[in-house]
Specification:
Blueprint: H1 4-7, E1 24-25, H2 37-45, H3 60-70, E2 77-80, H4 82-94, E3 101-105, H5 111-119, E4 123-126, H6 137-140, E5 145-151, H7 163-171, E6 178-182, E7 203-208, E8 221-225, H8 227-240, H9 247-258, H10 260-283, E9 287-288, E10 295-299, H11 305-314, E11 317-318, E12 331-334, H12 338-348
Parallel strand pairs: 1-11, 3-4, 3-5, 5-6, 6-7
Antiparallel strand pairs: 2-8, 7-8, 9-10, 10-12
Helix pairs in contact: 2-9, 3-9, 4-5, 4-8, 10-12
The structure holds pyridoxal-5'-phosphate.
Residues 29, 82-84, 109, 151, 155, 182, 184, 208, 210, 216, 221 line the site of pyridoxal-5'-phosphate (PLP).
């Protein structure tokens, strides 16, 4: 009844979305603030008559708006149903069994190995440095690979690799190997590598509306790169589903990226709350990895990560615990509203060593 392919699938495990109890949710890196009020206004008054027609399969106006935001032509922009879908198309289009392994960090977005399983792509996890940062040297040390992908800032660590380092990586990577920088969290203080796409034809940047634009529920992601890479993604899309973005999503996302004032206010708020949270945690003796994201990765000597997670969950607050060797004592905490972070900081004071 089931295909061999199906039986071999190992799906991704998303963060908990419990329905049985009200939690303070600091576990899935969602934005605690609403999207642009212009998006709200549009969705409340949208012409539902439009829905009898199929949407624009190429999301032209949205791609134009993203292109305008980054000063690039729309031919360098691809849009998809969340960056997860965009990433999955990338894995299909660019990485191959015959070219060596795909390289990504040992601790990173856990969807990458899932796509590798799905498309039968061999991969190698590259260890992080002692301080949990990504080292470009370990990606260029004579590796013969089918490609490279990592989030910047990395998830779940939050650490950020500066642009000159990405440039160095690109200058030392074969031109026929695609490098993908997954910038899901770039808007929270980092500098986007979109600036480099005109210098490197094999560089692709993937971003999302889910985090900094508070639209995780709308499912809109995009990729930016050389026209050749973009048209490969269009070919993959048109081989799966020509209409991944519905009409409302295309219009709402366009309105969101055009509302720069709301975006800046929202983003600055998160950064301010992040810095407030970090300084309070440090005062209480917590180790916090340097974060340029809308989450932090924290631990305290002698307290297992599972205890922190379990204690907080019991008190009605969710954080994400991974439990992998090397990061067992850490939990990842999304930056929520300041009032929620104050509750979180108070609760943490009562976490016991055992
Ligand atoms: C590093 C990274 N990339 C991509 C995504 C996917 O985001 P979305 O599919 O909502 O655009 C996430 C979501 O948490 C993420 O953490």
């Amino acid at each position: 009844m089931f295909s061999k392919r199906f039986k071999q699938l190992t799906p991704y495990t998303p963060g908990e979305q419990p329905q049985n109890r009200e939690y303070i949710k600091l576990n899935t890196n969602e934005n605690p603030y609403p999207p642009s009020p212009l998006v709200e206004k549009y969705l409340k008054t949208a012409d539902t008559d439009l829905l009898k027609l199929y949407p624009d399969p190429s999301s032209k106006k949205l791609r134009e708006a993203i292109g305008e935001y980054y000063n690039l032509p729309p031919s360098m922009v691809f849009t998809g149903n969340g960056s997860d879908e965009v990433l999955s198309f990338c894995f299909y289009a660019f990485f191959d069994k015959d070219n060596g392994s795909l390289l990504f960090p040992e601790h990173s977005y856990s969807f990458y190995p899932v796509y590798c399983g799905f498309y039968d792509i061999p991969f190698e996890r590259i260890p992080l440095e002692k301080d949990f940062s990504i080292s470009v040297n370990s990606y260029i040390k004579g590796k013969n690979c089918s490609g490279i992908i990592f989030p910047n800032p990395n998830a779940p660590t939050g650490t950020y690799l500066k642009l000159p380092e990405i440039e160095r990586l690109m200058s030392n990577t074969r031109k026929d190997r695609v490098v993908i920088i997954d910038e899901a969290y770039i808007d929270f203080g980092g500098e986007s590598a979109v600036k480099l796409v005109n210098n490197f034809d094999n560089l692709l940047i993937v971003q999302t509306f889910s985090k900094s634009r508070s639209l995780a529920g709308l499912r809109v992601g995009f990729a930016i790169g050389n026209d050749k890479l973009i048209s490969a993604l269009v070919t993959v899309k048109d081989s799966f589903n020509s209409y991944p973005l519905d009409t409302l999503a295309q219009n709402a996302a366009r309105i969101a990226i055009e509302d720069r004032d709301h975006f800046k206010k929202n983003r600055d708020n998160i950064i301010e709350t992040r810095e407030f949270t970090i300084s309070n945690l440090k005062k209480e003796g917590w180790e916090v990895l340097p974060s340029m994201a809308n989450f932090i990765f924290i631990r305290k000597k002698g307290i297992p990560g599972l205890n922190i997670y379990g204690f907080l969950k019991n008190k009605g607050l969710l954080v994400r615990y991974f439990g992998y060797p090397g990061i067992k004592d850490f939990v990842r905490v999304t930056i929520g509203k300041k009032k929620d972070m104050i509750v979180f900081l108070e609760l943490l004071k009562s976490v016991r060593r055992k």
